[in-house]
Amino acid sequence: MLLIMKKLYYLSLFFFVFSISLQAQYGKQKRADKLYNNLAYVEAVEVYKELIENDYNTRGNRLKLAETYMKLRSPENAVFYYEDILEDSKNISAEYYYEYAQALRGAKRYEESREWLKKYLESNGEASAEANKMLDRNSSKIQTTYTLKKSDFNSDFSDFGAVKHEGKTYFVSARNSGNSEKEYSWNEEPFLDVYQLNSNSEVSPISGEINTKLHDGPISFGQEGETLYFTRNNYYNDKEGKRDKEATNHLKIYSAQKSGNSWVNIQELPINNNEYSVGHPSVSPDGKTLYFTSNMPGGKGGTDLYKVSINGNNSFGNPENLGDLINTAEDESFPFIDEDEMLYFSSTGHGGYGLADIYKIDLNAENPQIINLGETINSNLDDFSYFRETNSNAGFIASNRDGSDNIYGFNQLLPLILKGKVTDAVNGNPIAQATIRLFNENNEQIAFLESDEDGNYKTTVNRNMEIPLEAKQIEYKNFNATLNTSNMQDLEEMEYNIVLQPVSDVEYLAEINNIYFDFDKSNIRPDAAKELDKLVKLMRDEYPDLVIEVGSHTDKRGSEAYNEALAKRRAKSTRDYLIEQGIAKNRIKEQGYGERQPAIECDRCSKEQHQLNRRSMFSVVNMN
User: Fold this and answer.
1) How much is the pTM?
2) Reduced to 3 states, what is the DSSP secondary structure of residue 488?
3) pLDDT tens-place string over residues 223-235
4) pLDDT category, 255, cuts 50, 70, 90?
5) Distance between CA atoms of 348 and 135, rounded to whole angstroms?
6) How far apart (Å, rounded) are the C-alpha atoms in residues 176 and 241?
7) Termini Cα distance of the chain
8) What is the DSSP string of 520-588?
9) In what order do the strands lie in the sheet containing 216-221?
10) C-beta separation of 299 from 327 below 8 A
11) Strand 304-312 vs strand 289-294: parallel, antiparallel, or unpaired?
12) Cβ–Cβ < 8 Å for 424, 179
């Protein structure tokens, strides 16, 4: 009896301890999920890791940890936690295929990313257009090229949103020059403020009433520079504004007026709302339109780009969504509009090189297209906050390609102009209607050109590329080469002349038919003289050093010896005709072949077949 009581005691103790442990893990799960929902991702990572180590809801927590790492823009870590689950698990939502593909792309594992995107499309009948864009991305389009350099005024914290105005550079940073102890739970960095770079390269907070204890920036200047538009958390008159039902303090756009060297008279724009975010202002160069980012209801998904007319006196029109050519189900942000109404923006939904790429679109074009700015500007991670000075090739972007958000200065190089002349290798004459084709690294044609009457061709090509080239003309041998457009930052044009070798076929070059003779005759007939005149023109005007052989033939009637002599007479009469027309004797060889090389093999030849065998033909001895 005592033994039974002891067993019951230990069994009860086991279940009690197990229950306590289970409750502890359950409480830790609730804490991890709450941290995630409150955007405290850095802290959430550690709690999810503890749950996985304790083998609690391992599959679900691995997926959640992968999502958390993607929020922190750490795709390598996200891939680590995604791959075991996705490679081995069958009963999982196809949406995770898409998320895994995104993480692989961020980790520069592009081929694997494409494979998982294909799986996503195969398993999801309502697959997003964004997945198709990633698969269809074509990098062969002719692009503006950029040189990029990390700016000297970056800190150890997030720096982005750089703009230049009246010779001063302004930017957003979490460097915390105010020594605030408050941190943003998302990444455990200080809150953002707006700074300016002085003429002596010293960094200081922007003067006036712009910066607060919450997030401030990025900014955009009005046309005359007297009004400043900026993003800020819902914070006005030194107090935090109303949060939404999920306790989120949303972003809003405010304006400030210039007073001396300071910015005062802060006003909230009427397009703001406590229930959604509005931010990233960009004023058009004419000062009439404000472009911005928002996740307001009625959008295409995520954050979208909008525009609104500026009417003055803090009066604005109705916000207008920029449409589904620009906006996707993912996030579009950081608009910038230049003097030519070229809109630049960052997006995670247009299938770029990384997580967020920078794109442009010409709003004045008849058939506008979204264009990726290319691999120098864009990386495998996030690239955003494009800005270019008016009427300048210089500007800024921001990127977290090296870990933290940093500002990079760029210099914009227009596509390289490729031009040249196609000429004959023998006589140096220009060749018209030669076709020139350019290819990309996948041997896909990217340009098709035709030389003009003077042999010239011209197009634009990408810089820093190796470009296979093929040139053809019906009277010439094919030409192949590879162009290298690297290290040409100081050049606007690249000259590449193409020299084609003529085909070694006189009849083809002169476009002549065979020279035919009457039966048992060697005189030049009128129809033959017309053909020989074409050969005279070729040898006299186009190839003055061309040396040819005249080869003459007979039909099979008559003895072999007789036909041999007849063929020689025909060759001589052909040669004599050419000499009479001014062609030098030493440029014409002659050979009689008799009946040995008939054009038509026949035992009982017809009249027509006999005629085809009675001929003179021409071959190249020397082109030079």
Assistant:
1) 0.67
2) coil
3) 888 999 999 998 8
4) very high
5) 14
6) 22
7) 119
8) T--SPPHHHHHHHHHHHHIIIII-TT-EEEEEEE--SSS-HHHHHHHHHHHHHHHHHHHHHTT--GGGE
9) 216-221, 227-233, 251-259, 262-268
10) yes
11) antiparallel
12) no
